[in-house]
Design goal:
466 residues, alpha+beta, 4 domains, six-stranded mixed sheet, 23 strands
């Protein structure tokens, strides 16, 4: 039989439990029901806290979390208990609220100094840049970019964002114990726009008046630069028309894109260029008949004025004797880059008597180009090196027998000198026959677009005159 003390404790516990049941409401206070544990050995009754079947509300969860220093969890396991329906709760956020600090990167800023300013030491910085994916790209910073640091409520680093420009952002986020980075790119909306102008003084001034920025103006000159020398060939009254891209983000214009088509009338001769992307994904400018606007050679290897033209009867400025000037001289500041006029192989690179530091390029079997009086050769330029058209092969100087810094440029066919400014340059590869049908269909659409823009522009111009 049980001892009297046990019977007494059991009786007392029964009274307590019975009283609790009788006094407990059956609805609203159900969620507050408490359970009691009976310890027969110790002869005590203790409050064990909330029952395993206790429904959890946002308020009660927050109170419990605050008392234990934990984050609230509004997802109750009670939902899975049979015969019990927990009240509907709002969805939990995907992540805790983050606090962001934003810094504009200035000249002289370092990644370390920016982390310190945001409140993080070099150890955290190293853990970020040594993370996975593209995290190491965070080390390359440029003035004008924007960097942001995200911290959690406890002050730990959750993410870093480096906005390169409006289209490119490097995002590095905490993933478990490590950081993972990826570059996120936004694609702008491209809308066609039209500009037209007539040259009165220079292409630069006329293009600016027509609303073209400097980059588009240089691109326009580059498209037609194989046929037109924009320093010497342009005349007053020459005209141009351009269809180009305007780029928009979220409905706001922020930049300009490529030139889609362009027309340039030089001395009464019309030149039309269309941007075409072939079936291989390569883009270039072509005339409507499929010929490339590019030539196998640049008309000039440097953007500079002519100081001495091609002249086979010229008197030498140093020797004071009649000696043929078998090239063209371009006056330019020392150090100005010199471009390869065409793709080829370096036939000679070094010191060449009165020419000073010189590079000679071999193009195919019968054409060579020579570049003399350099201050230094381009990086990696040596005998046998292959170069591409437009590649920097050296820099302007005054080495050799000269009176001042300039580039001496020669163009030879089968060893005989030719005037580089007037010689007929071979074309680059045209549209292949297999691509011609596709090209013609594209050309018809692009020319029709060009004509529509031109007509609208003329109507606007007439209306403004009225």
């Amino acid at each position: 039989m049980f001892p009297k003390t046990h019977i007494t404790i059991a009786a007392a516990a029964t009274v307590v439990v019975t009283a609790a049941i009788l006094m407990s409401p059956s609805s609203n206070v159900e969620a507050k029901r408490m359970s009691y544990a009976l310890d027969l050995e110790q002869g005590s009754v203790s409050d064990s806290g909330a029952s395993p079947l206790q429904a959890i509300t946002p308020d009660s969860t927050a109170e419990a979390a605050d008392s234990k220093g934990l984050e609230p969890d509004v997802t109750a396991k009670i939902d899975h208990q049979p015969g019990f329906s927990a009240p509907e709760q709002p969805a939990a956020p995907e992540q805790a609220t983050l606090d962001w600090q934003t810094f504009e990167i200035k000249s002289g800023d370092t990644l370390s100094s920016l982390f310190r300013e945001a409140g993080f030491n070099d150890g955290i910085m190293l853990s970020v840049i040594h993370g996975e994916g593209e995290a190491e790209k965070l080390q390359r910073l440029y003035a004008g970019e924007t960097i942001r640091f995200a911290t959690t409520r406890d002050g730990s680093l959750a993410a870093v964002e480096l906005q390169r420009n409006l289209l490119e952002t490097l995002r590095i986020a905490k993933d478990g114990e490590n950081f993972t980075g990826e570059t996120q790119l936004r694609k702008p909306e491209a809308r066609p726009a039209f500009a037209s102008g007539t040259i009165d003084g220079s292409l630069y001034l006329a293009a600016r008046e027509a609303g073209l920025n400097d980059r588009l103006t240089m691109e326009l000159a580059g498209i037609f630069g194989w046929d037109i020398d924009f320093v010497y060939d342009v005349r007053k009254g020459d005209q141009f028309e351009v269809v180009y891209e305007e780029l928009y983000l979220d409905g706001e214009k922020f930049d300009t894109g490529r030139i889609l088509s362009a027309r340039f009338v030089n001395r009464g001769e019309e030149n039309l260029a269309l941007l075409y992307t072939d079936s291989e994904g390569d883009s270039d400018y072509y005339a409507p008949d499929g010929k490339s606007m590019r030539k196998a050679f640049l008309r000039t290897p440097i953007n500079a004025r002519i100081s001495s033209p091609f002249n086979l009867q010229r008197r030498h400025p140093v020797l004071d004797v009649v000696r043929p000037h078998e090239g063209t001289d371009y006056a330019a500041p020392p150090g100005s880059p010199i471009k390869a006029a065409g793709s080829g192989r370096v036939k000679f690179a070094g010191w060449k008597g009165g020419y000073g530091r010189t590079v000679v390029l071999q193009h195919g079997d019968n054409i060579t180009t020579l570049y003399a009086h350099m201050s230094r050769l381009g990086k990696g330029i040596k005998n046998g090196t292959r170069v591409k058209q437009g590649q920097t092969i050296g820099h302007v100087g005054s080495s050799g027998m000269v009176t001042g810094p300039h580039l001496h440029y020669e163009f030879r066919v089968n060893g005989s000198p030719r005037n580089s400014r007037t010689v007929k340059l071979p074309d680059a590869k045209p549209i292949p026959p297999s691509e011609m049908a596709r090209f013609k269909q594209f050309t018809n659409q692009r020319v029709a677009q060009f004509d529509v823009f031109r007509e609208r522009y003329q109507q606007v111009a007439l209306a403004s005159d009225d």
